[in-house]
Amino acid sequence: MKTMTTSAASSQSTAVLAKDALERNIPCVAKQNIVVILPGSCYYTLKETYKKLEKYYNLILVGHSCAGNGYDRYPPFWATGTNDLNLIDMTTNDEVFNPITGQTELGIEKRIRNILETTDVHCIVCGSRGGQVVIPTLWGLGIDIPSVVLNGGCINSPCTSKYPSSRVVLATFGKDYFPTKNPQISINAMYKHQSLKGTILAHFCYQNHRPDDKYFSIVLPYLVDAAINDSTIKLNDIFANGNLAGSGFAVTIN
C-alpha cells in the first residue's frame, strides 16, 4: 500500500525570517552544478533567492526569458499558444535566436547535452511555463536529472509524456493561479502515475505564483538539497521549527 508522510502545517506569519536559516542544515558541499531553465524561473526578479542559491551551488543558465516574444511563447495546444516559434522549439531546436542579445544560441536540450559531455549536472530548476513546457519536453527526450519544478506545472501538462526516474520535487503555492494551488490536485496526480513514486511535494500555503523573494531565498536551497539527496528531512525541519514553521508542508509519495 502506498503511504504518505507529512509534517503538520499551521497558520503563522512569515514576515520575520531567520537570517541565514539554511546554513544550520545545508552543508557547504563542493560546488555542485545546477541548471536553471530561464523562461519561467523568475531568475531576474527573485534576485535574493538565486544569489543565495549560488552561494551553495554553481548555477548554469540555459534558454532565455522574454515572455510573449520570440521562442518564449506557449505551443499551439495552449489557449494562449501560437503555431509560430515557441518554447518547444526553444527546447528542441539545435540553435535559436535570442531577441535580448540579438545573437544565436544553442537550444536548451543541446546546451544541456553539451554540458553533460564535460561535467555533471546535479539538478535542474525550472518554474511556471518552464515547468509546464520545457522540463516535460526534456524528460520526453531522455534528459533524466533530479528536478525542482516551481509551481508544479508539469502535473497534468499536455507536454508531459513521461516522467524521469530521477527525483522530482514539486514546489506549489497556495495563492498561485495554477491549479496546483490546491495541493490535493498534485497529490492525486502523484498517486496516479507510478513513475512519480518517490516524488516530493512541498506546498507553501501563503505564497503567490511568484513567491516572496526573501522567504524563498531561504527555501529554494532546501528544495534543491531534497532533489539531490532524496530526502525531506531538512525540508520538513524548516516547516516544523523557527520562523518558517507552519508556512507549509512536505509529503513524499512512497
How would you explain this protein's 3D organization?
The chain has helices spanning 47-56, 87-92, 108-118, 129-140, 183-192, 213-229, 233-240; strands spanning 4-6, 32-37, 57-62, 95-98, 103-106, 123-127, 147-150, 168-175, 200-208, 248-253. It is α/β, with parallel strands linked by helices. The chain has a single domain (28-232), classed as Alpha/Beta hydrolase fold, catalytic domain (Rossmann fold). It has an eight-stranded mixed beta sheet, sandwiched between helices. A two-stranded antiparallel sheet has the order 4-5. Helix 5 (183-192) links the parallel strand 8 and strand 9.
In a nutshell, what does this entry contain?
The protein has 254 residues and is of the alpha/beta class.
Number of helices: 7
Strand proportion, as a percent range, falls in 15-25%
CATH topology: Rossmann fold
Mean pLDDT: 87
Cα(first) to Cα(last) distance is: 9 Å
The global form is globular
Low-confidence stretches: 1-24
User: Major sheet, described briefly?
Assistant: 8 strands, mixed
The CATH superfamily is: Alpha/Beta hydrolase fold, catalytic domain
| Strand element count | 10
DSSP helix fraction:
25-40%
Assigned CATH class: Alpha Beta
| Overall structural domain count | 1
Rg, nearest Å? 17 Å
At CATH's second level, what is the architecture? 3-Layer(aba) Sandwich
Label this structure with key terms.
about 250 residues, alpha/beta, Rossmann fold, 8-stranded mixed β-sheet, two-stranded antiparallel sheet, 7 helices, disordered N terminus
